[in-house]
Amino acid sequence: MRSSNPVFSRRGFSRDNGYAGFNAAPQAGAATAGANPYAQGTANPYATNPYAQQDTQYGAPQAPARSGAMTIDDVVTRTAMTLGTVVLTAALSWALLPVDEANLGKSYGIAIAAALVAFVFAMIQSFKRKASPGIILAYAAFEGVFLGVISSAVSTYIGPGTVMQAVMGTMCVFAGVLIAYKMRWIRVTRRFYGFVMAAAMGFMLLMVVNLLFSVFGGGDGLGFRSGGLGILFGVIGIILGACFLALDFKQVEDGVNFGAPREEAWLAAFGLTMTLVWIYLEMLRLLSILNGDD
After folding, report:
1. What does the pLDDT read at residue 38?
2. Helix (H, G, I), strand (E, B) or coil at 44
């Protein structure tokens, strides 16, 4: 089952010379290198040193409010639109593309095609300098088709309650990470980011190797998708998704504090949606293994 991987498409807020307060340090005391991740002339704040001052003092300095700047409400609204598109198309594909003996090949074919198209849209947006709402919503629509068919298959062949358990599990992970982040139990520092990226790269490399072994050797490859190892890697995948949620929350917080343009809220919605899709798929796979062993 394909995971929509946020690791290789994570991009920070773009730098726009038309927003002076967004490029300059928000306070005179914060003008040192690394204080403002958006003042380094790169579209990816993590490519430089955005957390140079975060190891000793958590949180970004607050930028003065300005017209047209991104707010939390903007992020919530765009995220609701993006996730709503995913849910809507997933529900439609579940209803219109039944996974049964008569339609199995057709439904799976459409799901695979939709997953590939969603991946292309995700890559296009990831390499664009600015957010494109049309591309982001198109990604969400095709991703929803893929999720709808996969969820229908799990409901049909594993158990009707598995999908709801995966949804509830994803919501619990989101709520738990949000609470932990707001309470500052999670500190997103430079070291935290480096650890998450290294772990995610290793995780994806193992999944690719397992896929190659399963394609050319048959069966489940190295066993990373079933049994005890499957359960272990499912838990690791969910933990990585939770870590990326923390990075997403930090990205949103920095964007608001540094006065990112309002349209950058679409990038935040894009990142959050990809991360939640990742968590849902890993949760669905883990529950499928557990319920399939009953």
Report:
1. 37
2. coil
